[in-house]
Amino acid sequence: MTNSKQPQHFLSLLDLSPTQLRGLIKRATELKAMLKNGEIYDPLVHKTLGMIFDKSSTRTRISFEVGITQLGGHPVFLTPKDTQLGRGEPIEDSARVMTRMVDCIVIRTFEQATVERFAAYSQVPVINGLTDLYHPCQLLADMQTYAEHRGDIQGKTVLWVGDGNNMCHSYINAARQFDFKLRIACPEGYDPDATILADAGDRCEIIRDPMAAAEGSDLVVTDVWASMGQEEEQNARIKAFSGYQVNDEVMQQADQDAIFMHCLPAHRGEEVSASLIDREDSVVWDEAENRMHSQKALLELLMM
Ligand code: CP
Ligand code: NVA
């Protein structure tokens, strides 16, 4: 495929404007309603989505594969084991070759620099399906889920509890783009990247004590203590993060209308209590489902 104009990539939430992001969330809810009404909507017929995954995935893989299929297109799932990428073919060459054939690419990998290098040589939109630095697609689903359950997030207070990781960084960017306050309760030594935090200005603050930070929060979010690639640190992290579990006590400190979110997979008894995540009114399953609806809106925006 040759494309004279520069493709629009989605490597972080900062790649789209606040207006585009808000429109995308609204569109995600429309696409969800159309699907539930049995409406066939396949504007991406004969389009192909390449999917390069260097890390495991349940939600991201299924939501993109099913999402592109529902839109009329077709996914090609690629792992380093099956491609020449795993045998050392340069990213730049892979990007030049693959993007002459596919219409969009999702990449899940370790370094953010890898998706940036791929995008620099890509003729088609590149989507970050998670790196060590960011997980922007998850934030689309989280913002859609908050909007569907509680309305506009602008001006609200969000509490992040746990590691200053890829999800935390994407929450910091979301605070900028969706205009909410973000409190980050993380143990010392596990702070988010200082530059990403500083760039968000006074919207984001670190408050070490999760109980104090929970006071008046409208949304409480956490994630695993050891991310993919940090498996060897698991035991040290369990020690470092004791006292950082989101449970019923933390939620009681939050606003009475507060909801809890988790990108999943979850470790019950570590970052979240079973009693909280398994509550009857838990929205985490809607949050997981919304990965597909919001990414369909993203594919529509980038590919049409
Ligand atoms: N939340 C999320 O990205 O899940 P997967 O790792 O299963 O894709
Ligand atoms: N922080 C987690 C998110 C998984 C969806 C990880 O990178 O493993």
Quickly list its features.
304 residues, Rossmann fold, 2 domains, five-stranded parallel β-sheet, four-stranded parallel β-sheet, 12 helices, 41% helix, globular, binds norvaline
Give the SSE layout:
Layout: H1 18-36, E1 48-53, H2 59-70, E2 74-78, H3 91-98, E3 104-108, H4 112-120, E4 126-128, H5 136-150, E5 157-161, H6 166-178, E6 181-185, H7 194-199, E7 204-206, H8 210-214, E8 219-222, H9 234-240, H10 248-253, E9 259-262, H11 274-277, H12 284-303
Parallel strand pairs: 1-2, 1-3, 3-4, 5-6, 5-8, 6-7, 8-9
Helix pairs in contact: 1-5, 1-12, 2-12, 3-4, 5-12
This protein binds phosphoric acid mono(formamide)ester (CP) and norvaline.
Norvaline (NVA) binds at residues 130, 135, 165-167, 223-224, 227-228, 263.
